[in-house]
Every structure is written in C-alpha cells, then in structure tokens.
Amino acid sequence: MSASLAALVGAAAFLVAAVLVDSEFAMRSGGLLVLLAGATGATYFLTTIENRPGIGQGEGASTFVLRYLPTRLAPVLAALTALGVAPLWIGILERALEPMVFGATFLVSALVLAALTLRYRRTARLCISPHTIRVATRNFDWEFPWDAVDFEAGFDAKGTETIAIRCPRAAVTTRPTPGKTPRHLRPPGDSPDGPWKIAPIMWGVSPNSLFSALNYLRAYPELRAELTHAELTAMLTPPAWRARRAFDLDPL
Q1: How do strand 141-145 and strand 161-166 relate by DSSP bridges?
Q2: What string of DSSP letters covers 11-69?
Q3: Fewer C-beta neighbours within 10 Å, C or N terminus of the chain?
Q4: Whether pLDDT at 49 is above 60
Q5: CA distance 220 to 235
Q6: For 184-219, how does the pLDDT look when each residue is reduced to its tens digit (9 = 90+)?
Q7: Cα–Cα distance measured from residue 10 to residue 111, given in angstroms and rounded to the nearest whole number
Q8: CB proximity list for 234: less than 8 A, separation 6 or greater
C-alpha cells in the first residue's frame, strides 16, 4: 500500500511540474500516471480488505453482520475506469472527439457496474447470531440453526473458495428473493441436506478465518451467547504475513 501511495504522490508531482512547464506530452503522461497509481492503490485496498474485517452490530445481543464487499469486481471496475479516463484525458488535451467518445463509453460502463454493485450491497448480509447463521442477498436468503449445521471447505465450479453448509433441508429457513440463486451455490434439488455454498470473499473475510470461526462457534454455543465484537473480529482476522510464513500457512 505504501508503494502505491508513493507512486500516486510521485505521479501527481510529475503532473504539477508538467503544468508549470506547459508541456502537453508531460501533462498527458502525468495524468495517465496518476490514473494508473490511483487504480492500483484502490484495487490493492479492496483485495486486502480481509486483513481488517468490517463487522457491524446486528439487531440482537451477540448478533453481528458482515456486509457484501465487491473484492472480485475491484480489478474490473479499476480497469474500466482506467480505460475510460485515459482516452478521455487524451481527447481533451488533443481536442479529438473519437477518444473522448471511447473513454465516455467505458466510464458509463464502470458507473453502471458500480450502481449494480451498490444495489446488491444494500441487502446482502451474512448474519451471525446466538441461534442461527443467515446468509441473505438479492439472489438467495438462507437461515440455518447452529445445532443442525456442519461446514465443509472447498471450491465452487468457478474455482472460488467456498464454505459448504450441510443441514437437514427441513431445518433450513428459505425466504423468497427478487433474483435467482446461482446454480453453483444452491444444493441439488433431490439432496436432503444441501450443501448450500457461501463465498467468503463476498464478505471481505479470509476463507480460512471464516471457516475456523464458524466451526468454533458451532462447537461452543455458550460462547455464541456472549460473543463480543472484539472476539469475533479477532477470529476473522488472519495472522500477520510474518506468522503465516513462519508456520507455512495458506496465504488465503
């Protein structure tokens, strides 16, 4: 992160110098460097968000909520923004219409994707309470009782780390949602116990940390009843990179 910040500061200084010397080439290069450094920094920030999980307070006692974070979409949004701003910047400097139209098209695409992402984030929640765990988005809404679940780590068909939740179908509360549940997350129709799959990366947490925390909370109901924000944060925060290297831990 410090390297991205240093690159952004350096690029901004280059742009200021270009304005002072009134060099069109330097202004163009400086603007593109600022854009590249900013996009890289924003992408880095979102893709490392699992090292500092954001946990909100739920409605009840010892009830906590993780909100959806667009970590997988961050590189796409950054790329679309860069592809939009760069030709738009060049078009403005050269007073050329074609690159401005090209850039505006990509910027509109980035804005549409960002709007859809914010819409999804409004309702997407992973809620941990003393008696149940609930996963709710625009595409699915499942609630499982702790005393009937089991968790399995794995991958979905797209290669994303998942946590599969096994639970008797009769014990699961399923609520209607506006969207359709993705096939790679929902269980087979003839399965009596799932699995229902969740992707930890959606919630801005490490797969290993979430898997360990869920198993620990399932095994100790007395801890769930008195769980604090600090305790859950500690569970969902992965070890420092130095510790991971020392113990040869999975970096994910």
Answers
A1: unpaired
A2: HHHHHHHHHHHT-HHHHHHHHHHHHHHHHHHHHHHHHTGGGS--EEE-SSTT-EEEE--
A3: N
A4: yes
A5: 14
A6: 888 888 889 989 999 998 898 988 899 999 999 999
A7: 28
A8: none
**pLDDT, tens digit, for every residue of 59-90?**
888 899 999 887 777 777 777 877 787 777 77
Instruction: Note the helical H segments in the chain.
Output: 2-21, 24-47, 74-94, 97-123, 207-219, 221-225, 229-236, 241-247
CB distance 130 to 227 below 8 Å: yes
Q: Are 169 and 191 in contact (CB under 8 A)?
A: yes
Q: In whole angstroms, what is the distance from residue 49 CA to residue 203 CA?
A: 10
Rounded to 10 degrees, the C-alpha dihedral 41/47/49/50 comes to -150
CA distance to 15, 92, 230, per residue, from 9 (Å):
10, 23, 35
pTM of the model: 0.71
Neighbouring C-beta atoms of residue 225, cutoff 10 Å: 12
Q: Which of 205, 138, 145, 139 is nearest to 171 (CA)?
A: 145
Give the integer Cα–Cα distance in Å for 178 and 97.
41
> CA-based Rg of the chain, rounded to a whole angstrom?
22
Contact indicator for 173, 129 with CB cutoff of 8 Å:
no
Using DSSP, state whether 188 is helix, strand or coil: coil
**CA-based nearest residue to 37, from 109, 99, 85, 103:** 85
Tokens of 194: 């799932």
Place of tokens 């797969």: 207
Structure token digits, residue 28: 């163009």
